[in-house]
Amino acid sequence: MKIHSILVVDDDENDQFICEYTIRKFDPSIRVIKAFDGTEALDVLRRETPDAIILDINMPVMNGFEFLDRYAEEFEVHAPVVAMLTSSHLGKDRERAMQYAFVKSYFEKPLQADHLRVMAELLE
CA angle, corner 91, sides to 87 and 92, nearest 5? Predict the structure, then answer.
């Protein structure tokens, strides 16, 4: 299945830029939706369900794990692919993220075309 839309949740504008650039280079038809923290992401998800969510862990207001908790509680239908994209190299962060059934991947920054290929394969 093709990825039609991706919600990128990251507080860093440079990381947002890199994600959007990489996604556009991978497939310019993918719609990129941006949120700069977990609260903003939840607001977006109350209006629409993207094919995939790329989520940072360390963010102000609501971090990635707080977002995952709220997302699990509030939404019955989840995006087909939720992927963590973080600078955290900690095994405990990976283990914690992968405990959520809807989290399918854990990548280290920066976003790469190979990450997007994995996400697209998970949609099949």
Answer: 105
